[in-house]
Structure formats: C-alpha cells, structure tokens
Amino acid sequence: MKIIYKNILYCVGLCALFMSLMSCGDNETYDFEGDSMNRVFLRNTQNSFKVIHTAIGSISMVDYKTPVFSTQKAKTTIKAMVSVDNSYVSKYNTAKGTKYGSIPLEDIDLINSKLTIPKDSMASSDSVNIKIKSSALDKLTEAAYLIPIKISEASGGNAAASTNMNVTYVIVTTETNNINDAATETDIRGALVSDRSTWTAISSPTNSTTSRLFDGNNSTYFSLSSYTTSNADITLTVDMAKSFKISGLNLNYRGNAASSYFSGVSVYVSQDNTTWTEVGKLTATKLYTVFYGSYEARYVKFVKKATLYYGSYYYTTIYLSEFNVYAE
Q: pTM for the whole thing?
C-alpha cells in the first residue's frame, strides 16, 4: 500500500508541475514578488560602434536604436522618457576597471526621447535613436567612450522605471584609418601606373623574387613567410623610383584579390624611406584599395604582424602577383 500511495503522490506532483508550466507558457508577463508596479526597462545588450578619423575628415558609424520594455502588458498607455546620463560613466569604469571617456551632452543627438508603450503591449512602438553630431567627431581623440542611456521617467498604467535595468550603454571606439573599406570601383580616383620598369622592392625576411611584383604576369607571384619563435613582423617595401600622388592600391594575386593574404596588414607611405605615415589596415577583399585622401609618396610599405601558430612558434605569410598604385 505504501508503494501505491507513493506512486499516486508522485503522479499528482507531476501533474501539478505540468499545469504550472502550461500556466507560465500562456502568461506573457513577468511577475516579481512584492512589486505591484509595471516596471519599464532597457535590455542590456552589447552596443558597440566606431568613429573613424580619415585624411579628409571623421566618419561616424554610431546609429543606435532601442525601444523600452515593460514587465507586464500595459493596462493603459505608458509613457517613458529616455536621457543620456554621463554620471554613470565613472560608476561603470569603477565597477568594470575600464577607462572610457564621456561625450558631452551637447555633442550627442538624442532623437525621439519620449517613447510610448501602447495598451496591451510590452514594448514601445517607437525607439530612441542615438547619434553623434558631425561637428563633434574630430574632438573624439580618446580610444573609447561610453554613452549611458537611462530611463529617467515612466508614467501611466501603474508604470515605474526599473530600479536595476533602467540603464544600457553604447560603446564608441575610435580609430585612424584612411582606407575606405566600403569603396566601390566608382570611388577609384586616378589611374594605374603604366610604367613600372624602374620599380624595385625589398622584404624582411629577404626574398629574391620581389621583381615578380612588376613583371605584368599574373601567373607568377611573390611569397613571403616567417615561422620563428621571435614574433617578428614581416615587411615588404616598394620603391617606385619617383613620387606619385597615390589615391589607392591594386593588389593582385593570380588575377584575384590578394586581400585574403593581406588581411590585417598595415600600409605605410613615405617620401624618403625614413619618415613613414600610416595609411591604415587592409580588410576588404577586393583587387582595389581606395584611400579617403591621397598621399605624395615614393615608397609604400606593408607590415604584417606574426600570429602565434603552435607552442612558442609564430607564423605569418603574404602572397602577391602584381603590385600597382592608382595615381592622380
């Protein structure tokens, strides 16, 4: 009898658990014990954007949009006010051990700060939009900034701002890069240099096949590899014998883009092979590379960092059939 009684209790318990799960599945609200308010909150997602400083000005990729949410369906229309609160930057840095800078409020475009959660909904029908004013971009000289977005007010429908999920953050990183990764062929300025007969190149480690870069034959190629424990960069320096106004590069590997072998490679230019200006890093997989601005230069240098390959050994390589520049 005891065994039968235990089995009955076990079955009853399973049924109760099943009914409880079914009830939760049908209920779209989030009930918090002891809180009668309908809390309005922001989802704390990772929001990261870039500001790129180029030779012809700065470009902002910052365009953050988010609605607000409520823990329960709105019984009546809920109004929420969103603002930027820079007092949270220092709090965040202290808690996380970071060193983010703050962007002055007058430099931030806070678009649509008044949001509405309609009746019977749990999310606002509109979104706040965060951008940085174009006039402020050149002033962003620190490596990274933090924009704290806060629910400053919520009203209607027994609503109140959440006490622990009322702030989300937008991270803005800055970099200097004069390579236009989004460029198309219509953005190319100038033309490829037709006479490369006097061009030469040297590499480190040394390689005797650098002349293949200028022989006009896509079937031949130059390759440079390093497999050592020294973690040394590999470099390729091209001497074009005279100065050109360079607006871009053409990197060809057997008739195709060589960028897959040049991904992460830093590009430098120089007039005297002594003082170098960094143009940026290659990322796009295209035959052509377009600079935002043009450079007067005789020398072009590529530097590729070694990556840890196995144990204490570092390995890196580049392949290239033809090198040329677009000159204005």
A: 0.72
259, 286 contact by CB (below 8 A)? yes
**Residue range 236-259, pLDDT digits in tens:** 999 999 999 999 999 888 756 655
Structure tokens at 299: 């020398």
Q: Which fold has domain 38-176?
A: Immunoglobulin-like (2.60.40)
Contact 246, 269 (CB under 8 A): yes
Name the segment(s) of the chain with CATH classification 2.60.40.1740: 38-176
Q: What is the mean pLDDT of the chain?
A: 87
Distance CA 25, CA 27 (A): 6
- The pair of structure tokens assigned to 90 is 């220092």
What is the third-level CATH fold of 185-327? Jelly Rolls (2.60.120)
- Please classify residue 185 by burial: count the beta carbons closer than 10 Å to its beta carbon, then call 0-12 exposed, 13-18 middle and 19+ buried: exposed
d(Cα 248, Cα 300) in Å, to the nearest integer?
Answer: 11
Q: Residues 117-124: what's their mean pLDDT? A: 96
- Inter-CA distances, 285 with 7, 8, 289, 313, Å: 66, 67, 9, 28
> How many CB atoms neighbour CB 150 within 10 A?
18
Tokens 């390729």 found at? 236
- d(Cα 117, Cα 162) in Å, to the nearest integer? 15
Residue type, 179: I
Portions of the chain given CATH number 2.60.120.260? 185-327
146 strand-pairing partners: 171
